[in-house]
PLP-dependent aminotransferase family protein (Delftia acidovorans), 475 residues
Amino acid sequence: MKEQLSLSLSLDRASKISLSEQIRQGIERAIEQGVLKAGARLPSWLDLASQLGVSRGTVKAAYERLVDGQLVVSSRAAGTRVAERPLRAVIREERPDEGSFTQLHQEMIAGQGIFQLGIPAKDSLPSKVFARIRARSVRMETTGWPTYPDPRGELDLRQEIAGYLAISRGIDCTPAQIIITSGFAGGLGLVLRALALEGTFGWFENPGFPFSRRALEISRIQLVPVPVDDEGIVVDYGIRHAKQATLALVTPGQHAPLGATMSLRRRLQLIEWAAESKTWVIEDDYLGELQLDGRAAPALMSLDRSGRVIHLGSFSKTISPKLRIGFAVIPAQEVHRFAEVAATLAPAPAPSIQAAISEFMRDGLYIRHLRRTRRLLISQRDVLVECLSRRGINAKIAGLSALIELQQGVSDIAICRESAVFGLSPGPLSPWYADSSQAPAKLLLGIATAPISSVDQACDRLAHIIHRHTASAAR
């Protein structure tokens, strides 16, 4: 009979590393060093929580991460044990430096908890149907002649996207203008490489997506933060402060993260300025037509007659970010320049994944999936707002997020880090601002990852954390 060990772990309660992560690291270290051998049984959640003076949820979160890392296995009958034959070598990943961009990425995007931003509703996709389509695509790819695929992307998918954009986003383009990319980030990288605007000024929405902002900084574009109001980016401000800018990155459909739709007046003003100054406008259409109230506004590119708008979209919010499939719609006169960059530096992802999405769209399944997703998200949004309201928390809907304002002196980042211990992944608003120290403290709660079956308990836990931090800040 395998022994159950009494773990000797030391926790630093003053550390910025969560208690759950300290427990996980301690157990992983013990496995690496041979202190915990294959088959050794770990204490139960309750026993270890009692031993360390922490909540059972803290221990549970640590164990779940160890299971995800294939270091331990868990079953109701046998408890939690060190894996007999680890499926991978134990590789210790160094924690990112405090305040580093890598840490921000892990905390804002890599989570898997309730309220996580930027990922679709888990139950909306007909996963079995899509899995069959994808398996068929893989078989066809592996049995066909092994040739290099078109770096711009498979023609079938580009044709489907062109047809979809014409109907849903009002964009009149040909398949030749579309380049398939590795998600939105791949599309942005393609555009920045092709335009080669190093050393010039670029407008960026303030607040705006931190990872897009960092991409522009890496490309050595001098950023000009431009404020956003209820009509979208304030074009007059941008012209006054950086009329000579060569680039503007905007989210006109639904501003990320505040949710405003850019007004027609602002759209026309932005396009007119771009045409006169020969400026490029990158349209991040990150939600496409996933607008929950009313009909989605046509894409900014649908109004462009001078060929200055580049449209970026992806299937990350509608199908899955794991597919890493996005697309760029290029003005006709620039197609050859962008195709050359795609062929040499950023070729399209695996043809089998492209073929699966193409079939999914061609058979009408994608449109039906979007309709079903909207209905689901509306239900989840309404229940989430009601659950928060019952706990005295007022939420403003911002796109596919619920925005919660915190009292002055409360750290949105501290609340998010503590919430992660309990399987919750709200996002802090402050990192979205160019100067986070001057940003208002607010939380962003993803609607898509707030299932009705779990949201009441999640709101209860989050409310307790918020109230405790509020009381502490008031002292």
Observations:
- The chain is about 40% helix and 15% strand.
- The first strand starts at residue 72 and ends at 75.
